[in-house]
Automatic annotation (TrEMBL):
Pfam families: cNMP_binding. Keywords: Kinase, Transferase. Residues 16-110 form the Cyclic nucleotide-binding domain. This is cAMP-binding domain of CRP or a regulatory subunit of cAMP-dependent protein kinases. Transmembrane segments: none annotated. InterPro entries: cNMP-bd_dom, cNMP-bd_dom_sf, RmlC-like_jellyroll. GO terms for molecular function: kinase activity. It comes from the Bacteria.
Amino acid sequence: MENFNLIISNIERHISLTDEQKTDFQSLVFERIYHKGQLLLRAGETCTNFAFVDKGCVKSYLIDEKGFEHILTIAVRDWWIADIRSYVTGTPGNLWIEAIENTKAIVLSRHNQEILFRKHPDFERYFRILTERGFAVSQQRIVERMSLSAEERFEKFIHQYPALLHQLSHQQIASYIDVTPSFFSRMLKKRKLK
């Protein structure tokens, strides 16, 4: 029970759970440890699991034709992560999902999610809320990439992920804010001079 306190708290921010619902949910998920650099998903695989970050940090990213990594999502403690399109459609995805640091995740398979929905329809509401919020965040990131300067995107990153500023490499931060590592270095030097 103790291993699931954070995820149960996360769920209960959106729906009320009975003891039976908590027990059934816990019977359908499993804990998984990922080491730094370990992949949760490879591009081309079908995403069959939704992972809740209990401890650690995970990223999802694309690799372009030149081999450059473009980070779409950074999931920190108390966040869910998956290749949603692949998870929902059951088709191969195009995202890589990787642990940025040693991570403990609570994993729910698509199959077990369907069992959960049939037995406890309230969970559909919870996952609908997650999906809506995830879509809103993704849409906002697209708008920001189109309308904010690199410096403004970096300021937003600092505000959103202050703890990650020293945990992530400069290359990972550059990828997340959608600039090259060399541009990011120049940007940092310019900030220090101010």
